[in-house]
Design brief:
311 residues; alpha+beta; Beta Polymerase, domain 2; 3 domains; 12 helices; 10 strands; 13% strand
Amino acid sequence: MNQGLVPINPDQILDDETREFYCHALRTLNHSGVPYLVGGAYAFERYTGIARHTKDLDIFVREADCRAALAALEATGCRGEITFPHWLAKAYCGDHFVDVIFSSGNGVAPVDDAWFEHAVDETVLGIPARIVPAEEMIWQKALIMERERFDGADVAHLLRARGERLDWDRLIGRFGEHWPVLLSHLVLFGYIYPAERNTLPAEVVQGLLRRQAAGLTTSAPSEQVCNGTVLSRTQYVVDVEQWGYRDARVMPLGPMTADEAAIWTDAGKAEAQPGTVPDGAAGAERADGRERRPGQEEQRPERASGAILVR
């Protein structure tokens, strides 16, 4: 069953202080002229009708506009921080904060011009704003399969609500070499909603299944590569750090430097529940297999490693 965009009713889920902070952030960004999109819970509710209160506001910008967005918020008293240099910054104001997102934790889904070309004009908290396209939301969420967070249900709900309206050629193009992940979600959708499986275009599912079948008749790659790190930063630590698999996130296989992958993975280890990451794996090696010495960090041009306060 497909449905149109659903009006947002933030009064059901936000206290007055939080609402005012979010409104202040949106008004500030509108006044600054920095191009941005609203994602997260607000865009998800608009597409699916599912409302939930989260502790932050997700703003998506091009990487080139990240520091300008932080500067605009800092000018009103917020404290800016480049939390993870390959994808995420934050602006704190008291107990509240805004996530300023310019890529994804795995580095696979950067915010580019197409996000803005296909964005949807909306009103968020009574303020004119644009929300991220449904295709990009599915693209990012489909690749999140952490032990503590699996966004598969969000993908299923987006497909249920928007499947007949999606630009499927563009969505498949977004996944690129990661198309098997999209296929896995489409198969799961048919299981989750058997009476609504025709929401998905048959030619799309059949085309991806043909790709999968063709791959079964070709020789397997000789190099041991683990693509699992694209889906989870901690659950495939043992494969990369102990079993000798190459990390698919890291150049030249993926978009991340070895240190970017190591910083992101180490943060996941620090947040993990005891016993959920294999013993002996924590902080042992860089993602490219070389020893990581204290204070020795690899830098991508115009990026620094670690959380940096922006002043």
